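Shipment paperwork, digital attachment
Item: protein structure file
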Amino acid sequence: MADHDYRAEAAQLDAADPLGALRERYLTPEGTDLVAYFDGNSLGRPVAAAADLLQQFVAGPWGDRLIRSWDEQWLEWPGRVGDRIGELVLGAAPGQTFVGDSTTVLLYKLSWAAVDAQVAEGRDEVVLDTDNFPTDRYVLEGIAAERGLTLRWIEADERSGVSLEQVQSVVGPRTALAVFSHVAYRSGFIADGAAITAAVHDAGGLVLWDLSHTGGSVPAHLDDWGVDLAVGCTYKYLNGGPGSPAWAYVARRHHGTLRQPIWGWIGRRDAFQMGPGYDPADGIRSFVSGTPPILAMVPLQASLDVIEEAGIEAIRTKSVALTELVIRLADDLLAPLGVEVASPRDSSVRGGHVTLRRNGFREITATLWTQGVIPDYRDPDGIRIGVAPLSTSFEEVVVGMLALRDAIVASDAGGVTG
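Attachment content:
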């Protein structure tokens, strides 16, 4: 198929896209050199309304009401915004999700709380996999060293992810906690959240899921799956902005029994009493530590407005269509050049990005960035094509993939594309 035929097909897909009009909600500054943005799975594009909301926030709740806003609304924001994330993308009933801290800090707090409760029952093993995101592995290694725990490693396939059978083979009477990513950061493989959670529970362990590559792209059903704990960032498909605060989910049945290790004043039952000793608040607020990142939640709420309008199921439908197009273009245009698809071809177990592999992709990624085509690189030899359903068009996919082909051809010829 000629290049113009791919472009014509993309134009037809964009014209029929029920979410197409929502692309206008995302900021594209005039004069930008951006041609194709394939890194929405690392940093989502800003919602245009975020700038106005920030100005209103500065003039109103902050500039006008000043410290009174803490009593009037801000103290409720971690739970209120958390509930909204829970409802829109996590399948979580109210009162179980809050926003605050970074993903790393929340992973530490929830993992520590889980193992602390389980060690008392004679459980001293933590199950994790070799291909989980580095933060997850490092945090658990630190907790294991601190608490004298044993790490049970699952050797995960970098092209897929953790399987139910692997989990069943390692969990047992000493399992305190198992921590996995629902969508693998490297390959995009979707783990079986319900079945793996049940397998760990059958062994008496608790489960913590990292949903950083899930939230806003792949529907989750934390309550229905019976998940104990979960965390995720908000700067990918939730478009909260660089360094935007993470969210944490703690199933209601664990409130009052799991106790996190960072005892801050906001998590105390009566925060403003400021008395001696730490008496944790009831419910999810006991997992909050210090002053909530109020300003950082403003852009996040603008993004949640768009997600609510679209609906997570429609978002997932478009995500599948976009990644299917990426794979077909990879097969047609790039496979003859030695590129292979390193993500699942079955869309039911593929998340929101597609990883392509070939020698030399690190250098080719740098070349593409100079041309305004922005994927990202992950070892070994992988380019991730991250398509964000609410802000990525089908035309953008075609243009970016054609540019990738041309960059490979130029690299093989020893030339420089411009």
